[in-house]
Amino acid sequence: MDDVGAYIDNNRQRFVDELVEWVRIPSISSDPTHAKDMARNAEHLAARLRELGAGQVAIWPTAGHPAVFAEWMRATGKPTLLVYGHHDVQPVDPLGEWTTPPFEPSVREGRLWGRGVVDDKGQVYIHAKAIESIVRTSGELPINLRMIVEGEEEIGSANLDALMRDHARELDADFVCVSDTAMFGRGIPSLCVGLRGLTYVEVHVDGPAFDLHSGSFGGGVMNPVNALAQMIAGLHDADGRVTVAGFYDHVLPLKDEDRAQIASLPFDGAGWLRSTGSPAPWGEKGYSTLERVWARPTLDCCGIGGGFQGEGAKTIIPARASAKVSCRLVPDQEPDDIARKLAAHFARVAPPGVRVRVDFLHGGRPYLAPTDHPVFEVAKRAFSKAFGKPTVFMREGGSIPFVRTIADRSGKPCLLMGFGQPDENAHAPNEWLDLENYHLGIKSAAYLYDEIGKM
Ligand SMILES: [Zn+2]
């Protein structure tokens, strides 16, 4: 592995230059005018992977944008690792806020700036360059490796499940590595071991058939806005717990060792609060901020509307009101089950004189990695060797539904080994990639393959 490390050091600049070439292609999956760029983007990656001695490289068409597949399967008797990434990027607007154009990548302050540099082209290249470094120094990879790079992550991975099903044999592996997340902080190698799921509903409250004169009718019929406000206000108790019956039934409690591990992270609570602009933290009693945003379920009203919203005064009993409500879920909560419980709750607490309807908008299942599997120790060792620091376990409060898709479809342990930084502006103007992280990420991936080869 020493000569691999040296190769990575000696080719540091070229690895950046090659990433720059790929980032120039505007692979915006959400914009139909970029469909040709999506195809060109997939071709570009496939051509680079072909140069690395892959046994097979293919472009898999889908009902939407194509995915790139490659495999190196010559390490007889060794484990197989499936690496997931995506080659599409987010839209770039507002364009005027970019310091340099999003598809003319430039290097400033040790950072590469451009759309997709960290989400996720840089992270895909981390694996490609790790493969190159091993293949060029020792001829063959120490493991069998398969790589799938989809083109629709930024638009919801609508065809990923079908791809995984149709190509189940080619995507079969012992372990999965997803590189599309951020580290806990600068220089802290982090494996993400948990993601929250989501249930999103819209509540409609209907009263009179049309807006009524509040003088003639006020006091005589229930006001839907009053009713809905009362229903929403009752969703939490004084301890910040959700009052929906059965909401916590399937929540896996945090183990003592998980709590100790989360408490050991260098979390800057004051800085975190400052970044929100809120005057004080809030949340479920008995839990720390990180526990609340990573490992506890939540319920939030994301928007509420109804009645007269215009200039000045208008005296009415509105006909209707509605609210959007989202819940972040943790294992083993299920989106459908929570949606049903929400609907039952709203029906129960609605005051007489209104009709209530709850629509389920969308959902995603939470994810918790099986961290007692030995591959997590192996990944920690590889990550720490590259960064020279202990590797930490972290979670993400957000939802990445495709991780659950991959984990469920493959049935294998999934390593979320991300090389991003929390403040790299993924999805925003001025996306950047820390070039030191890119360099150390390539080493981490090479060491990961090496360590898995010894399992
Ligand atoms: Zn991504």
Q: Which tags fit this structure?
A:
alpha+beta, 9-stranded mixed β-sheet, 35% helix, binds zinc ion, 4-stranded antiparallel β-sheet, 455 residues
Would you kindly provide a brief summary of this structure?
The chain is 35% helix and 22% strand.
Describe this entry's structure for a reader.
With 455 residues, the chain is α+β, with helices and mostly antiparallel strands. It contains 14 helices and 18 strands. A hairpin with a 6-residue loop joins strand 1 (56-60) and strand 2. The longest helix has 19 residues, at 435-453. It starts with a helix and ends with a helix. Residues 86, 119-120, 153, 180 line the site of zinc ion.
- Small molecules bound: zinc ion
Mean pLDDT: 96
- Identify low-pLDDT runs: none
Going by helix content, strand content and strand pairing, the class is alpha+beta
Taking the sheet with the most strands, its summary is: 9 strands, mixed
Tell me the helix content.
Answer: 25-40%
Percent in strands: 15-25%
Shape: elongated
Q: End-to-end span in angstroms?
A: 16 Å
Secondary structure tally: strands: 18
Radius of gyration: 25 Å
Number of helices: 14
What is the fold's blueprint, element by element?
Blueprint: H1 2-10, H2 12-23, H3 35-50, E1 56-60, E2 67-72, E3 80-86, E4 106-108, E5 111-113, H4 121-138, E6 144-150, H5 160-166, E7 175-178, E8 190-195, E9 197-206, E10 212-213, H6 214-217, H7 224-233, H8 256-263, H9 269-276, H10 289-295, E11 298-306, E12 316-317, E13 320-329, H11 335-349, E14 355-364, E15 367-368, H12 374-387, E16 392-396, H13 401-410, E17 414-417, E18 432-434, H14 435-453
Parallel strand pairs: 3-6, 3-7, 7-17, 8-16
Antiparallel strand pairs: 1-2, 2-6, 4-5, 5-18, 8-15, 8-17, 9-13, 9-14, 10-12, 11-13
Helix pairs in contact: 1-4, 1-14, 2-4, 4-14, 5-13, 12-14
The structure holds zinc ion.
